[in-house]
Amino acid sequence: xxxxxxxxxxxxxxxxxxxxxxxxxxxxxxxxxxxxxxxxxxxxxxxxxxxxxxxxxxxxxxxxxxxxxxxxxxxxxxxxxxxxxxxxxxxxxxxxxxxxxxxxxxxxxxxxxxxxxxxxxxxxxxxxxxxxxxxxxxxxxxxxxxxxxxxxxxxxxxxxxxxxxxxxxxxxxxxxxxxxxxxxxxxxxxxxxxxxxxxxxxxxxxxxxxxxxxxxxxxxxxxxxxxxxxxxxxxxxxxxxxxxxxxxxxxxxxxxxxxxxxxxxxxxxxxxxxxxxxxxxxxxxxxxxxxxxxxxxxxxxxxxxxxxxxxxxxxxxxxxxxxxxxxxxxxxxxxxxxxxxxxxxxxx
Length: 348
Prior knowledge:
InterPro entries: Lon_proteolytic, Lon_Prtase, PDZ, PDZ_sf, Ribosomal_Su5_D2-typ_SF, Ribsml_uS5_D2-typ_fold_subgr. By secondary structure, the protein is of the alpha+beta class.
């Protein structure tokens, strides 16, 4: 081959490599998501001397990451590959590391709540030692950002003790822009009291119109909880609160003698609150795809009290679209999930 031709071929290959590298590494201001997998919870949850099961409970995941040009184009080819603008998922100024940390914190909180629901339903001892409400993220430009710090523990509001994030939110949500509030925090072992005003949330937070606050995002109830018997959960780097329902079912099943799975493969999704209420999540349709690929017999989806745009309706539509034989079950509470499982016959 003549030298001139070889040079042209070499240049073309170099240009092609540069283009491919650009497509791979140039990140767009979007997140890309697609169906993830289904994780058998018996493999990652262990109750001390817990009972075994013949079937399994599975959490379902959505695979998510920053979108490049390739993934942006790929997402156009399937309704189960989705794109989200960065501002829809991340707070203004939040780094990738901070976003990931927030998701892991949400997962940790979800696991803790699931344990409480399961143990209390099974009549097992649970002991609490409250440390206050942990400040994890502050919203830039709002009053709290000037005086509070991530890692502070809010222990009092107007001189009255506060123990949980739910208490904090409830006691602050009725205030107006002209009000002020005194918050006492434990910072590195020192108590400090600050007076904070209220302001409207920035548009990027997607708060209800006119809602005001001090600017604390994703507060966490910080407490030490002792469970007897002990329980360990290892979900590595999975983030978010959406596995709460399935965590609680797996833990409860290991605490009681009767096997609720009855030999079935049961997948699902949904947050869980301490009163057993099951809440909505994102990506219900994608999780149906993941559960079907894992061979699940049933899929539990948050019913949201029959709302027309509920996760259950989204899951039903996805199940019909992919032609799965897996049955979609609407769930509003932990007790409702138990009632359904108890009604099942043993799997042949």
